[in-house]
Amino acid sequence: MTRLSAITPSGHAHIGNHLGAISRWASQGRPGDLYFVSDLHAMTVSYNPARLRVLSRELLAVLVASGIAPEQVFVQSDLVRELGALSWVLECTCSYGEAARMTQFKQKSTESGEPMNSVRLGLLTYPVLMAADILLQGASEVPVGDDQAQHVELARSLARRFNSTYGEVFTVPSAVMPPTTARVRDLADPTRKMSKSTQDTIGSVFILDEPDLIRRKIRRAVTDGSDRVAYSPEDQPGLANLLEILSACTGTPPRDFTFGSYGEVKEAVAEAVIEELRPIRKGALDLLADQGELDRIRKAGAERAAERGAHRLTSALRLAGVA
Length: 323
Ligand code: AQP
Prior knowledge:
Elements: E1 4-7, H1 15-28, E2 34-37, H2 49-65, E3 73-75, H3 80-91, H4 96-100, H5 103-111, H6 121-137, E4 141-143, H7 146-165, E5 174-176, H8 211-219, H9 237-250, H10 262-289, H11 291-319
Parallel strand pairs: 1-2, 2-3, 4-5
Helix pairs in contact: 2-10, 3-6, 3-11, 6-7, 8-10, 9-10
The structure holds adenosine-5'-tetraphosphate.
């Protein structure tokens, strides 16, 4: 049973990615689970190529420094030839209507503010690429939130359709709900979730931020008008966000903290976050400084991932009549 998860280098990884996903992958994942840096997915919207290259490398270093075994990670674009070939086969298995009804496509194409004629075709076809990611690796389980469940459903349909039309090749994957963890909110605007791609970075604590910068960002976090220190997500979302971060770092339930002032809360949150991230930051920076080691990890990951999918790709192409 292989479980496949991805993280997109759309910006620097933040404490939300760490608490909500990466730390859980490292501590609760099973040896056969796979994790990849989905850099091809970052190309569906406007992006800077040089920055994407740096962010992909940085994210790979963060995953390994977080304790995920190097044998379980790879970078998606290292399989661009295999994925390109399989995506084409799957695009020819998928109808336009199926792709166009993906709610994330409708939402993202509208949010982009561009006229539909200018929206990248990749934004429409990216769920098919995601299906190729899943089917190439033979993943049986894909942990996704509600926003991605429809994409896994599409991967299931394409796998079934291909298997019944051309011959049995693909494992039919299932979406599994990841355990619920608190959504970390933007420190400057607690109505939004903390996000890699936010333009204004003052509300995001990045995993590789220096301790002093983390202190500054947390000191400037938006709290609420009242001077009451209580855990009340509805009335005091900014404070609740800080208490939830502290809770995730310390294991103490957010209602059990007894602080006298906002200043005390922020001090405690900053120190807990710095301690939580310290070993990961150090490990990632060491890896990024040692070009050779990170390159070796990346190359080995790419080879393993390509090998894992080679027989499926060959069979799919042969059954589709093109190899
Ligand atoms: N704020 C968050 N709090 C808790 N968990 C979070 N995740 C993302 N933001 C938070 C979890 O991190 C994993 C990374 O998935 P992704 O690369 O698909 O990113 P995303 O969910 O689209 O959100 P990001 O990281 O903020 O990126 P952008 O800016 O590109 O949207 C997932 O498991 C996600 O739940």
